[in-house]
């Protein structure tokens, strides 16, 4: 059994991006917009800015108060949309109550949508004409590619159908010629479906939900979930300790998919800047 080391691969990719940025005359610029003072969002934003420094992406940080109006948020996004120094715009979600995230996100031009959440970028993904793709699922694909996993014709099961994780994950796997089943909270016979998976991707946000009896011998298990267990320790959606001996490859939490997400944000910021 291989434990997929997302931290190590992520460091390697960041080093390669750094080299690319150093060699280029263009210096990518990423604007990070935080509205309010949600502690988790503050940590995410801090980590994103740290990653920018590491790779050589210029970061522009904007913090609006909890009381900011929809108009103030959208005015800032319009300003960033028009700013040539800014190649990518990230609006940290969730927004404080009362603000319309969908309407705000619509102010981010598609070519600066480094989160890949816009309707246009999702549409392109569905048409197998990917441009800027959501960072977490993209990170999973990079991990699988680095592990030399051939997805063609394999049964892939995705647990979770969120617009930002589960759906783009399923679409990427489908575009890579896997046969994809997407499960959600209304799915019947979930265990049987999971047992048929050559590649099982869990993105539901339920601590240690995927148990050994749900997994096929030799399967590849990718755990996107970030939860806290009964002792307050970070854990994934997969019962790692009991599942790991049954599978051929598995991502740990932490240290698996997590580090790849911010690295893919840097990848997307560079892609947007270099117009690749
Ligand atoms: P989300 O928006 O809450 O979506 C959860 C999905 O899981 C929904 O589609 C839901 O089904 C499904 N689900 C919930 N309970 C289920 C159950 N018992 N059986 C089957 N399906 C179930 O969450 P998300 O944003 O996609 O995130 C999922 C997890 O990934 C979270 O733990 C989050 O923290 C983590 N995450 C990690 C990263 C990273 O960088 N590693 C990035 C993003 C998210 P319905 O649609 O029917 O409600």
Largest sheet, strands/sense/barrel:
6 strands, parallel
Secondary-structure element pattern, one letter each: EHEHEHEHHHEHEHEEEEHEH
The neighbouring-strand order within the major sheet is 1-11-8-7-5-6
Which structural class best describes the helix and strand composition? alpha/beta
- How many H/I helical runs? 10
**Percent of residues in β-strands:** 15-25%
Alpha carbon gyration radius: 19 Å
- List bound small molecules: NADP nicotinamide-adenine-dinucleotide phosphate
What is the rounded distance between the termini? Answer: 36 Å
Determine the fraction of residues in helical runs and give it as a percent range: 40-55%
Q: Please mark out the parts with pLDDT under 50 across 5 or more consecutive residues, or reply none.
A: none
Shape: globular
> Based on DSSP secondary structure assignment, what is the total number of beta strands?
11
Mean pLDDT: 97
Give a structural overview.
With 276 residues, the chain is an alpha/beta fold. The strands form three sheets. The chain has a six-stranded parallel beta sheet with strand order 1-11-8-7-5-6. Helix 7 links the parallel strand 5 and strand 6. Helix 1 runs parallel beside helix 10. It is globular. The two termini are 36 Å apart. It binds NADP nicotinamide-adenine-dinucleotide phosphate (NAP). NADP nicotinamide-adenine-dinucleotide phosphate binds next to helix 10.
